[in-house]
Amino acid sequence: MIELNSFSKKYRKNIFSNTSICFPDGKVNFIMGKNGCGKTTLFKCISGLEQFDGNIKFDNMNITEARSDIFVLWDDTPFYLNLSGVNNIFLFSKGTIAKKDIIEKAEFYLDYATMKRPVKTYSYGQKKRLSLVLLDVLKPKYILMDEISNGLDIDTMKILCERIDNLKQNRTIILTGHQFSFYQHIADNVFIKENNTLVEVEYDRANNTDLEIIYNERLNKN
Predict the structure, then answer these.
(1) Of the candidates 182, 174, 106, which has an alpha carbon nearest to the alpha carbon of residue 140?
(2) Domains of the chain, CATH where assigned
(3) pTM, rounded to two decimals
């Protein structure tokens, strides 16, 4: 569980003001909002990259206690470009996973030849899939994904849906993005950024509720 209490963030103007909300374990929590509304900023605050007012708790732990178990998959996750895919994963996992096991886990996303190539030769989509390999290897407790569906083909998105559904057990997952047709198949709880805060909206995944309709109705209302 990730819990925001009286959370506020300001640059020249307020981005979030006195926001208190809970993202529970075992659910896929999806945040909607306009471009530039502060979703990425929120992730930076949760992961300890930016200062903020209020507090954020991770199952009653602070960021210092939880930091090693937080994984953020940015829209453009940085890797060491001159290293191969497998050596990047080996490095980020601090050598705790054997390279042969990394290659085995990677087969859902990237073939052996690609994993052995330098990352500088990868396409945008291949870099995104390498990020998913890292996620599968590390299996962190708190997972934040920013625009995860960007650059992925249909087959990879199908695999990702299944992996996220499996990963969410006993983990806290928060996603942001704009490809609503993808997220509505995996979201359990839906939040929208409006009026400098986050609001949970009614959502029924079982009935495949249309996220785009919810999004547009909330924007027109506000």
Answers:
(1) 174
(2) 2-75+140-221 (3.40.50.300)
(3) 0.90
